[in-house]
Amino acid sequence: MAVDIDLRDLMSKEELLDRVNKMNALGPRFTGNSAHNAFIEKIKKEIEEMGLPVFEDKKTFFRWEEKCSSLVIHSENGDIPIPVSSAYPYSGFTGEDGVRGRLEIIVDKRLGFLTHARDKICVCRVSNLEVPTILVEDRRSSKPEDTDLPRHYGGPVITTFANFPLLKVAKMSGAKAVVCIWSGFSDESVQGQYLPFILDYQGMPAVWVNPSQGKKLIKAAKQGCEATLTLTAETQNDAPTKTIYSVIKGEDKRECIIINTHTDGVNCVEENGPIALLSMMRYFKTHRPRRNMIFVFMTGHFRLPALKAPGAIQCTSRWLEDHKELWDGEEGHLYAVGALTLEHLGCKEYSDTVSHTAYVYSNPIDIEMCYTSNEAVDRIYYKALEGREKVRTVTYRGCNALHFGEGQPLFDVGIPTIALVPGPGWLCVVDKENSCMDKFDPELMELQTQTFTKAAVIMDETPAHELGRADGYSFGIIKKVGISETIKNAADDIEHIKEDIAEKIEEIREKL
User: Fold this and answer.
1) Rounded Cα distance, 393 and 378, in Å
2) pTM exceeding the 0.90 threshold for the entire prediction
3) Structural contact between residues 346 and 269, judged by C-beta atoms closer than 8 angstroms
4) pLDDT tens for residues 201-250?
5) CATH architecture assigned to 7-62+237-467
6) 64-236 sits in which CATH class?
7) DSSP output for 332-390
8) Which of 190, 223, 264, 472 could be joined to 31 by an S-S link, Cβ 3.0–4.6 Å?
9) Could you say which DSSP state residue 328 is in?
10) How far is it, in rounded angstroms, from Cα 247 to Cα 245?
């Protein structure tokens, strides 16, 4: 039997859409900027209007935000402006007049800088990194049954995260600036990508250009042209930001369930999780839970180096470190028997064509990637999905020390967690015209919010010993397949690697 909840006590898709539009009107919510601070205050006000308490964790950090960026090639035929697809976050900045230098193609990102970069503007091609999905995901189940991620996992986020030493090496080598060229993507798919967001301040101005503009840049570099790169930025020492959280008290005075998300984000889905949490708070304010429910609205997801706990990866680690009394079960402390994480609701799927010449709508639902910490909470998630027809989800266990999203810190401390974290290729796109609303489905967001409310109800009713503890990471090549399929998959992977090598060789030939 499906879980029965009163949908009237949750926000409708019309209400959710209205909240998302109001959030978008604030502008991109880069950590600690005025739009982000205003969004946090709106959340706080709404919680207080429910008659619930709001607690604050105030933090400060060094803030950087792009004001203007441009790139101009100086050729014998005159100046050629090269459109910038986006600035490289927390890279660096120039004066209003920019920096001018000869363009230098760097073939090897680690060693080429050391001998060729001084006083140059370095040009680096960053190729789409695709890895066998089997190495990064341990699949539990799916709905529909044949749903799964592609056999090779790539895209802008994983590509940029794997190229993180780039700017530090450039700085050590004496370069003036860096231009990164997206390779293996369509021009449209990389426009406005706010990536990478995991690095500390680099002290080296850098921008991204799309593949088409990159070809012009490489040609100019081979001709010995100079260029001027301009990247101005607003910086602020000790910029204020804050995490807020609230508690809906249950009948049980010792046990609790944590429900979390983050508040900083760059478009309509990154991050709209706070709106879903407010809807859930409205529900549980009316339908008192058995256990205490703690709703956490984290800051810092887009400024992780400054705002996460030492040695951790995601920003929720900071709240867990600061508030052990709310979850660790020690004497006099609350004990978290379970957790739910909601991020990136309502995503449609868009994909590059095989030839990378266009970015097209490919599915009404981007795969609802969901981490479930053990089999018990995996069953709860699928129980909560019963009766829902519009669904395309896969559940995973953290694998090879990888667990995407803000559910990871909860998983890492052993709390059984259900963590929704879809990862569309456009997740980190800054779209100042419509905040990627053409790629957003409010009905899907409504269904996902209902699903997680049902999951919270089931989790609240499940005895702690049945919820158990998180399994911990699995390691190695995990997927359960027969020997014949294993051999076939290995052969396919080898062919894929051969194709990548051939592409790399061709890139090097072009650069030489």
Assistant:
1) 12
2) yes
3) yes
4) 999 999 999 999 999 999 999 999 999 999 999 999 999 999 999 999 99
5) 3-Layer(aba) Sandwich (3.40)
6) alpha beta
7) TS-EEEEEEEE-STTBPEEEE-TTSS-EEEEESS--EEEEESSHHHHHHHHHHHTT--S
8) 264
9) B
10) 7
